[in-house]
Model the fold of this input.
Amino acid sequence: METAQNFGQIIKQARKEKSYSQRSLAKLIGIDFTYLSKIENNRADYAPKEDVIRALARELDLNEDELVFLAGRIPQRDEELLRQHYQTMPALFRRMRENPSFTDKLWDEVAENKE
Done:
């Protein structure tokens, strides 16, 4: 069974594919290399800020929005949409959890309408 890579693993693999050291990549995006090490090893106390995630994505040629979500953040531009519908979000998530066929249909529709 294939295991999905987590945020840190994706960053580490992409960094190595680009032949960056932790120090060089950290310097390019303006963070300390020890923090980058913590990110890659999933030992950071919190998810990086969105601007750090986007900088990593740009330097490593990764999809910025996907990386933001994978890190456990909600893109700032989507926060307003969530604020407008915050009362219905629990019901949506509950329905998705309780009804896998609804969830599959929803994801299929999203995939069809993707860019």
About this structure: The mean pLDDT is 89. Residues 7-75 form a domain with the 434 Repressor (Amino-terminal Domain) fold (CATH 1.10.260.40). Residues 50 and 73 are 7 Å apart (CA to CA). The radius of gyration is 17 Å.
